[in-house]
Amino acid sequence: MSLRRISAADAIARLAEFSAVIDARSESEFAEDRLPGALNWPSLNDAERAAVGTTYKQVSPFLARKQGAVLVARNIARHVEGHVQPLERDWKPLVYCWRGGQRSGALASVLDQIGFGVHVLDGGYQAFRRAVVAELETLPATLRLRAVCGRTGSGKSRLLQALAAAGAQVLDLEALACHRGSVLGPLPGVPQPAQKGFETLLWRALRGFDTTRPVFVEGESRTIGRLRVPERLLERLRAAPVLHIEMPVAARVALLLEDYAHFVQDADAFCQRLAALRELRGAATVERWQAQARAGDFAAVVQELLDQHYDPVYLRSMQRNFAGFAAARVLPLDDGAPATLDAAARALASEP
């Protein structure tokens, strides 16, 4: 039998045809980004790659290849023994590594000799990554984006969730980025993906939308936590028609206290996040907020944060960056209760 090599474009178009997508790279490479649905069967793990690389540079390439061959053979044997034994003959994997060379070739050759219909991604992960980057340049222009804007605590994320439940198309950037997009935005216990992984998640989401129907997306800044929104998507978002949520301040405070309940339960963590505002708001103000938080008066702190920090920053950002903000359609909401958001979402989802 002979290995079948497949281009990145064909592999992307035919992903659903493969029984499995096997990533032969190390665990850290896999964690940073990977093809959709990929499984990690490393031909060399991180420590082994480092050891072989050291031998290559400090001793000789020939000795490094022998050392690597032993490690790769052992690892492939372990994968065959641990993963392949139960599989039927019609199992058809797509295998790839960094460039589509030795690591994927070694694993694919063994699987091919067993009798499976193996495909190897020509150019490896690098070819896939180039395809993702190229499509992130073009896909945003094909979509009918609707920018959902509103002051902090006005329920934008909750409205997006209600819209998705009502059948509307939604691009939830903060959910993909695992961050709420502010100084207080990190999700407890949930790390953000790597930039490349974030972009692959975005790429998958953009490819899945019906271009004839609107896509609701929160009006985000250039960065969400430590992640950057791709430039073409940001440009399209900022040029999109704006839906501006307006909610009373008291309701916004109540909503934020619900959404950030983990801070209410951990005043020290809240105070650590507030410390990032010292330069903008002054040490005296931040220290007063921290003292109020430690005394349990979170509502007062949130109220002042909205009045003195978030609302002024929001207004300047919207006026500067969103072309449609001045002519935005206003969506008044009394509160962030599920019934309120569900009613608004159903009405929006029913529109053409």
Q: Can you walk through the features of this model?
A:
The structure is a single chain. The chain is α/β, with parallel strands linked by helices. The chain folds into two domains: 4-133, Rhodanese-like domain (Oxidized Rhodanese, domain 1, 3-Layer(aba) Sandwich); 143-349, Rossmann fold (3-Layer(aba) Sandwich). It has 17 helices and twelve strands. It has helices at 8-13, 27-32, 46-58, 61-84, 102-114, 124-138, 156-165, 173-177, 195-207, 231-239, 249-259, 261-264, 267-274, 278-281, 283-294, 298-321, 338-349; strands at 4-6, 20-23, 39-40, 93-96, 119-121, 144-150, 169-171, 214-218, 223-224, 227-228, 242-246, 329-332. The strands form three sheets. It has a five-stranded parallel beta sheet with strand order 1-5-4-2-3. Strands 7-8-6-11-12 form a five-stranded parallel beta sheet, with helices on both faces. α6 crosses α9 and α11 (249-259) packs across α16 (298-321). The N and C termini lie far apart (53 Å). 34% of the residues are buried. The model has no long low-confidence stretch (mean pLDDT 94).
Distance between the termini: 53 Å
Task: Please state the average pLDDT score.
Answer: 94
Fraction of residues in β-strands: 5-15%
Radius of gyration: 25 Å
Shape: globular
